[in-house]
């Protein structure tokens, strides 16, 4: 995109608030074009950029991006929360065994339940879940409050 410099962490630190500079920019579940697309972001969307890997930025997931765990690994829901039952239970991008795994949870961790889809429980993504965007589509907007220099 002409006239817009890619993000360079001006403060040299993460996290920072970044601004999406293109339209329909893909937020992916990993740092590369071969990873599944989570959503397309609008121009001028803000992102909380957490880290960098090569030419990709890891970002906090925007609100509304869910994660999934197979129903057989989730206990009874109480007030919107449920225990994980098992070790190394995969947290998936989509409700499918073939979907990319973001990582794993183990008992006695608990998850925030958002709903269900067939044999899958839709959950609030755990903190380790990240979205990835190519750095050429993000520009530095401001240092995040509390970030160290």
Layout of helices and strands:
Elements: E1 16-20, E2 25-28, E3 37-41, E4 46-53, E5 56-59, E6 67-70, E7 81-83, E8 89-92, E9 101-105, E10 110-117, E11 120-123, E12 131-134, E13 138-143
Antiparallel strand pairs: 1-4, 1-13, 2-3, 4-5, 5-12, 6-11, 7-10, 8-9, 10-11
Care to describe what's here?
The chain contains no helices and 13 strands. The strands form 4 sheets. A 5-stranded antiparallel sheet has the order 12-5-4-1-13, with no helix packed on it. It has a 4-stranded antiparallel sheet with strand order 6-11-10-7, with no helix packed on it. A hairpin with an 8-residue loop joins strand 8 and strand 9. It has 2 domains: 16-60 and 130-143, SH3 type barrels; 67-123, no CATH class. Mean pLDDT is 90; it is low at 1-6. By secondary structure, the protein is an all-beta fold.
Keywords:
149 residues, disordered N terminus, SH3 type barrels, elongated, 4-stranded antiparallel β-sheet
Roughly what percent helix?
under 10%
Radius of gyration: 17 Å
CATH class of the largest domain: Mainly Beta
Structure classification = mainly beta
Summarize the entry for a quick read.
With 149 residues, this protein is mainly beta. The protein is 0% helix and 43% strand.
């Amino acid at each position: 995109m002409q006239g817009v410099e890619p993000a360079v962490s001006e403060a040299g630190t993460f996290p920072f608030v970044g601004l999406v500079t293109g339209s329909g920019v893909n937020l992916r579940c990993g740092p590369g074009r071969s990873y599944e697309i989570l959503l397309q972001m609008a121009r001028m969307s803000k992102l909380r950029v957490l880290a960098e890997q090569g030419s990709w930025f890891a970002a906090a997931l925007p609100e509304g991006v869910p994660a999934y765990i197979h129903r057989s690994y989730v206990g009874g829901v109480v007030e919107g929360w449920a225990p994980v039952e098992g070790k190394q239970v995969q947290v998936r991008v989509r409700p499918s065994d073939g979907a990319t795994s973001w990582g794993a949870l183990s008992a006695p961790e608990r998850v925030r339940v958002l709903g269900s889809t067939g044999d899958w429980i839709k959950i609030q993504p755990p903190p380790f879940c990240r979205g990835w965007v190519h750095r050429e589509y993000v520009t530095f907007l401001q240092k995040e409050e509390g970030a160290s220099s």
